[in-house]
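R.M. (postdoc): so does anyone remember the format we settled on? I'll just put the structure tokens first.
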């Protein structure tokens, strides 16, 4: 089974090379077949240059003109990898070290053919978070709980971005009609996958708060997620 790993970046020059080197070690084991697409939103810190000079032939770079949201970056990446025939499964993960390469083998093992999604999950037995204050943990747990109740989806981590989507699932979704740009893109994708009848597997992961760079989380992103989730929940009740 061939995987494509999508990694969106904005000002990740201090962490992206370390991530690529860790992925290189995993490739050298000869067990897993994957390539990487870095999607850079014109980072002023030279992230794209770091990727271009990394020397890994299995790493591609998609340069975008500007920073316009996580959702748009991922949709551009999905479009590019689905246009080819190389991959069976598409992985999404962060560039800042919060998503561990060490958790990928278990997620790879959970991926299966057909319409499926694998969620790297913090809030199930075996999952954990490191270096997060209680306030961030409460925000994340509360966000997932609210989304789960509002949308009628019984999953433990709807806001996490460490995932694997099957090609078949992504091709069944109307990605061009999706609107979320911030972190609520993760909720929108979970909802769309649920409505598409995806086979869902939750795999416990250890989430590590970034040690380099600056978090992209903001009050505006939280408000966007709350408003969008409420709208989707109302729409589901009006049009089951």
């Amino acid at each position: 089974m061939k995987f494509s790993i999508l990694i969106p970046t904005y000002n990740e020059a201090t962490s992206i090379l370390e991530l690529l080197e860790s992925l290189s070690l995993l490739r050298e084991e000869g067990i897993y077949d994957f390539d990487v697409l870095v999607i850079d939103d014109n980072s002023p810190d030279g992230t794209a240059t770091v990727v271009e000079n990394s020397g890994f032939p299995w790493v591609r770079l998609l340069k975008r003109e500007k920073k316009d949201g996580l959702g748009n970056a991922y949709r551009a990446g999905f479009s590019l990898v689905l246009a080819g025939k190389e991959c069976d499964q598409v992985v999404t993960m962060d560039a800042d070290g919060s998503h561990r390469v060490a958790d990928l083998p278990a997620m790879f093992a959970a991926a299966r053919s057909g319409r499926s999604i694998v969620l790297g999950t913090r809030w199930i037995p075996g999952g954990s978070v490191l270096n997060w204050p209680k306030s961030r943990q409460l925000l994340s747990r509360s966000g997932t709980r609210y989304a789960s109740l509002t949308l009628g989806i019984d999953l433990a981590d709807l806001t996490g971005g460490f995932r694997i989507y099957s090609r078949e699932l992504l091709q069944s979704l109307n990605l061009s009609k999706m609107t979320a740009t911030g972190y609520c893109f993760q909720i929108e994708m979970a909802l769309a996958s649920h409505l598409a009848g995806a086979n869902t597997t939750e795999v416990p992961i250890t989430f590590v708060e970034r040690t380099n760079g600056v978090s992209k989380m903001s009050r505006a992103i939280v408000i966007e997620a709350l408003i969008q989730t409420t709208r989707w929940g109302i729409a589901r009740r009006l049009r089951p």
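R.M.: ...and that's the designed sequence above, right after the tokens. Also worth knowing: Helices lie at 16-28, 47-52, 70-83, 104-110, 134-151, 167-172, 184-195, 219-238. The longest strand covers residues 2-9.
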